[in-house]
Amino acid sequence: MSFNTTDTSNTLYPGLDVSSLSWAEHKWVAWYVWWGNPVIATGMISFLMHEIVYFGRSIPWVIVDAIPYFRRWKLQPNKIPSPEEQWDCVKQVLWAHITVELPTIWLFHPMAEFVGMKTYHVPFPSLSTMAWQIAFFMFFEDLFHWAAHRLLHTPLLYKYIHKIHHHYAAPFGLAAEYAHPAEVFILGMGTLGGSLVLCFFTEVHFVSFFIWVIVKLFQAIDSHSGYDFPWSLQHILPFWSGAEHHDFHHMAFTDNYATSFRWWDTIFGTDKKYHAYRARVKAAKAKAATLAEFSKAEQEIANQVLAEGLKTEAAIEARLKKKSS
């Protein structure tokens, strides 16, 4: 795709000196000129990016699940998703993408323009500007996700919306967006909201939001991977949640509601069962004479947590049934 002087370029970029652009900015201009309509251009690049990154990042985890060597780092090693489960998951994810994310993506450009976000414009902001803005988006989304996720665990919202996401007690990468369309919309507002809010205080460019969504997709997919490697980010940044943190939420149906960071769960006390579980695992490891003995003990603890989680889920639905009767 190359940039040529056309009526569209004169409309969108009057007087633009193409030679002053970086390689990335040149490609950005060429994309918008080629489509000839900023709304369509923004929608297409957003949707294509989302699908390529989501499924592209999920494929390595599908491969990892198929190789027994990696089971030593699997958080729930006895629960490997079957090809049938993965295909069913893909169908639900695609349904949510088409019914919720695709319309939201097409509406994003008008919303962004309304609050003053730069979209097709060049030049891009500096790297330092993009860095602090993306950090703000992460902070905003993490707090929003914690609060919205807690609400999704109230009886009514859990039974009719959030329960779909908890179909897999042992999550895997593809299941990051396996959810009811309403949940995709609710939690998606946290991803979008930070950039829109920040526009009221400073200039924000769509490219900063674009990069943030890529970061968010990697984070969401990896936190649902079900694997905790020695080199996983939570071992480098202790405040990072990661798969080890979120896997417990799926196993126990409670605790660990945040998405990227651990601090909101710590501040609001929604990680007590998680820490009790980790303490039991640590004690079992200290007591075990062999690796096999520890693995057996760890599995027994996990089974107990899962059983307790199923009781928690049943209790949530029982409360709703009692209220409606």
From TrEMBL:
Coarse class of the protein's main subcellular location: membrane
Highest taxon, organism lineage: Eukaryota
Keywords: Membrane, Transmembrane, Transmembrane helix
Keyword Transmembrane helix: yes
GO molecular function annotations of the record: iron ion binding; oxidoreductase activity
Subcellular location: Membrane
GO cellular component, one term: membrane
Domain Fatty acid hydroxylase: from-to ranges: 135-270
Pfam families: FA_hydroxylase (PF04116)
Keyword Coiled coil part of the UniProt annotation: no
InterPro entries per record: Fatty_acid_hydroxylase, Sterol_Desaturase_Related
Membrane spanning residue stretches: 29-49, 184-215
A biological process from GO: lipid biosynthetic process
Name recorded for this polypeptide: C-4 methyl sterol oxidase
